[in-house]
Write a structure and sequence with these properties.
By secondary structure, the chain is an alpha/beta fold. 49% of the residues are buried.
């Protein structure tokens, strides 16, 4: 049986005053997660580099007001450990990463240093921080050995990676599993009290992402400029989901690690249903329709680096064991995303709008947030 879903009031009680250490809080997903955790009443310390784009969600949504903002590199073990041990968190969310495939080709050593050794540094800092009870280490759907088949990947499928980014995330999964079995085994929870889980999400979309070489930011930049947007692989298939969907999964997973650590200290996929796994070109065409104003896209004929053609995730385990499920159909996720960018483009109050979308999602969750 899946877990019994609690009310929003129950969730707030879980997080009220809970001390949370969040790496990557200046990034796209990290900023949304920080705002949501603050809304639930958590006390948060963020540890990350400066935002890597301008504009960025961290500044536009005033995320710095939601937490204790520490700037540092996860490759700097001494600073990371000192920041964590001094804060004494109960929960650690590890989101800091080099998240881009094409950048991993340009800087493979930096990618491995951040994604592999950075993960090891976080988990080593956890070893030195006696207050920690739950760790959610976030990786990606690309951590699987891609067979280019139509079947969705399950948590038991082999890990792998063609490119430096994908392989670095597979390594991060292996590092997390090694720390779990070596230092935080579930049969010795009464000694160390730490439960470590990993979370693998699909292609995340939502307002406030300006990363290079990502579909939605590239389309928004093109739409605003009035030029057709070049799309590298319009036939590529991806498991699209609004950013609040996997974040809901991460929060739920952390709650269960606190409540039943021996059961949930493992890996979980968070992905959309089969109907929301769309080709890139279909996403682009839908966004053209939503944006209007002469927006358009064309296929990019210039050869690029290798990228997987088909990616699907099987999130049955999260549905059954965590009671988690997607709340937004892809069409609605795209509408929310474009509403956010349009509001920003028109100079609206972005902290208020971002908070409003989180509240709307909580309402959709009804009794399950």
């Amino acid at each position: 049986m899946g877990r019994r879903e609690g009310t929003l009031e129950d969730v707030v009680k879980t997080w009220q005053g809970r001390r949370v250490f969040l790496t990557g809080h200046t990034g796209f997903k990290g900023s949304w997660l920080a705002l949501w955790l603050k809304r639930l009443g958590a006390e948060i310390r963020g540890y990350a580099l400066d935002p890597c784009t301008e504009p960025n969600l961290f500044d536009l949504a005033s995320v710095g007001k939601a937490l204790d903002d520490v700037r540092g590199d996860v490759r700097d073990h001494a600073k990371l450990e000192a920041s964590m041990t001094e804060f004494r968190p109960e929960v650690v969310f590890h989101l800091a990463a080099q998240p881009l495939v094409r950048r991993s080709y340009a800087d493979p050593l930096g990618t491995y240093g951040t994604n592999v050794m950075g993960t090891a540094h976080v988990l080593e800092a956890v070893r030195r921080t006696r207050s920690v009870r739950a760790v959610v280490s976030v990786t990606t759907d690309k951590c699987y050995q891609n067979q280019e088949w139509l079947w969705p990947y399950r948590e038991t499928d082999p890990l792998g990676g063609y490119d430096p980014y994908a392989s670095s995330k597979a390594c991060a999964e292996i590092v997390s599993a090694a720390y779990r079995t070596s230092f935080f085994p579930v049969d010795r929870l009464d000694e160390h009290h730490v439960a470590v889980a990993t979370a693998r999400a699909g292609n995340v979309i939502g307002g406030g992402d300006w990363s290079e070489d990502r579909l939605i930011p590239d389309l928004v930049r093109g739409f605003r400029s009035g030029r057709p947007v070049l799309i590298r692989r319009p036939d590529a298939i991806r498991p699209w989901q609004h950013v609040l969907e996997p974040l809901h999964g991460y929060i739920t997973l952390a709650e269960q690690l606190l409540a039943q650590p021996a059961k949930f200290a493992t890996a979980f996929n968070f992905g959309p249903g089969d109907d929301d796994i769309w080709p890139v070109g279909r996403i682009a065409t839908k966004l053209v329709q939503i944006w209007g104003d002469g927006a358009s896209w064309i296929r990019d004929s210039v050869p690029s680096v290798h990228e997987d053609h088909v990616l699907r995730l099987d999130a049955s385990k999260a549905r059954v064991e965590l009671g988690w499920k997607p709340r937004l159909k892809i069409e609605t996720a795209l509408e929310w995303t474009m509403a956010w960018y349009r509001a920003w483009n028109q100079g609206e109050n972005m902290p208020e709008l971002t908070e409003k979308q989180i509240a709307q999602y909580e309402q959709l969750c009804s009794t399950a947030c």
